[in-house]
């Protein structure tokens, strides 16, 4: 409960202190507790700590799940750690966790922040190959990445792909398409 409260407040340092206290008291935190801690690190832009907690989980007899990975991916994305995000996404199937749209969107976001428009397109393609449905966020973020690098034609192609996928563009995707053409 204490770590969950820290998560809501975005106080990752206090959340880490609570975990240390739990471990010293020989209490065994569960996956939900660790997920709250990783999420607190995400909210506090503490990507290194989020990854360390993810690595710590198996050593403490707690198995990371999709939520664990999504929170760690989000922390990497917020800090522009695109290489780590892509590597983590690729590692998920090796631990029997199937990445979902949220996981892919975090990696696409990390690539966009890292000015890696090619990475956003590769991840969109991989989503289709692995039968994970791209969302408006997936397309909008990739369009934004292409537009920022002057690839307006690719951004508009993604905008058209949304229509072919029967996905209604939203305000963000319209904005990304317009910005790409400026």
Topology:
Blueprint: H1 2-9, H2 12-24, H3 31-43, H4 47-59, H5 66-78, H6 82-91, H7 101-113, H8 117-129, H9 136-148, H10 152-164, H11 171-180
Measured distance between first and last alpha carbons: 49 Å
**How is the main sheet built?**
none
Low-pLDDT stretches: none
| Helicity range | over 70%
Structural class of the secondary structure composition?
mainly alpha
The oligomeric state is single chain
Mean pLDDT: 90
Total beta-strand segments: 0
> Compute the gyration radius: what is it?
18 Å
The proportion of residues in beta strands is: under 5%
Shape: elongated
Number of contiguous helices? 11
Following the backbone from N to C, one meets helices and strands in this order, namely: HHHHHHHHHHH
Short structural description:
The protein is mainly α.
Describe the structure.
This protein has 182 residues and is mainly α. It contains eleven helices and no strands. The termini are far apart.
Give a quick set of tags describing it:
182 residues; mainly alpha
